[in-house]
Give the backbone structure.
Amino acid sequence: MRDTAPMLGYNSTSYGTGFADVYDDWYGDVTDVAATVSRMVGLVGLVDPAGPVLELGAGTGRLAIPLAQAGLGVTAIDSSQEMLDRLHALDADGSVTVLHGDMVKDLPDGPFAAALIAYNTIFNLLDNGAQQACFSAVAARLAPDGVFVVEAFVPELDTLAGSDVSVRSMAVDRVVLSVSQTTPSSQQGTSPSSRVLSHRRVPSVRSRARATPEQLDAMATAAGLVLDARHADMAGTPFDSESTQHVSVYRRLTG
Ligand SMILES: C[S@@+](CC[C@H](N)C(=O)[O-])C[C@H]1O[C@@H](n2cnc3c(N)ncnc32)[C@H](O)[C@@H]1O
């Protein structure tokens, strides 16, 4: 077997180029959609029951569409037209307002009752400066008491060095591998994934600046937000030192 596509250097459209055609198949259940909807409806209800809600890096609408179907006004922004094409195809009713753009520079005017950046998408911003800019841009668009919900994995700083290969899923006609290589000093990692379909292999690359929860808290503070709650998942499992994921709710204080 030989590569039929070159490894891609990462930019904000790389994710969609590598994953749009398989995203919902591979990642459809990667986080708990029902719990996400329930959590967001609950949070938004404390600010303004109708929302609106802004989802950053919304991709194919895996979360944005169910959120809209739950009655929230949802605006979804993504830099990949390929991912958004899938969203349009899945959202036949046009229930989601869609923006093609960058989740730092191109955010729409608010105010939003809530903003959501799910499933490690904050790490698709390649350095801590861009992540800080994202926090600041979101904070400026939140209504008073509005919340920014960040779902991300917890980097294991002491064991980050090296590479890892694991089987994400396996079927008769397909093996999906997750491959990562990380340099701990910079918290930078690349995560190519390979899809093997008959004689076709499609590699893609993402780079990540893996901020810890504490680093994200510092970015939120600098943006004028305060940590309101942190759990291990959207269902509200308590967060502790063993947690591998976190769902952090940052609130813009009134006045
Ligand atoms: C891990 S996927 C998550 C998609 C969706 N939020 C979900 O949970 O299924 C990350 C998404 O972020 C988008 N993305 C990456 N960099 C971006 C940027 N700078 N601005 C907007 N979207 C970006 C990608 O195109 C991709 O759709």
In short: The pocket of S-adenosylmethionine is lined by residues 12, 15-16, 27, 57-59, 62-63, 77-80, 83, 102-103, 118-121, 124 (CB under 6 Å). Residues 22 and 195 are 9 Å apart (CA to CA).
